[in-house]
Give the backbone structure.
Amino acid sequence: MNILGNIFWLILGGLETAFQYFIAGLFLCVTIFGIPFGMQAIKLGALMLWPFGSRVDLEPGQPGCLSTIMNILWLIAGLPICLTHLFFGLLLCITIIGIPFGLQHFKFAGIALTPFGRTVVSDI
């Protein structure tokens, strides 16, 4: 079931958002200061290609002060990606079949705003 869900996900906005994450990640990796942000964007882009069968959890322990600072700086790159997720989520929730995919986009909209302090866990 995860494979079928992932194939539909790619068609229903997953490929576009993954591309957006990869482009943002490449642009952010141009400078030494942007490398941690670029690597986070590339990691989330890989998650966008195959989200069913994976989940995003908070890192063990308390998120530190560095994660908070990085999330605040991330808002510059994360806001357009968050808006893309919200757009696809609203568009997909119009139909009954698209509701699970729209809810997935809404979940990823929150992750797009604050990705630092989170880890991707594969359930497979």
User: Anything to note?
Assistant: The longest helix spans residues 65-92. The first strand starts at residue 54 and ends at 58. The mean pLDDT is 87.
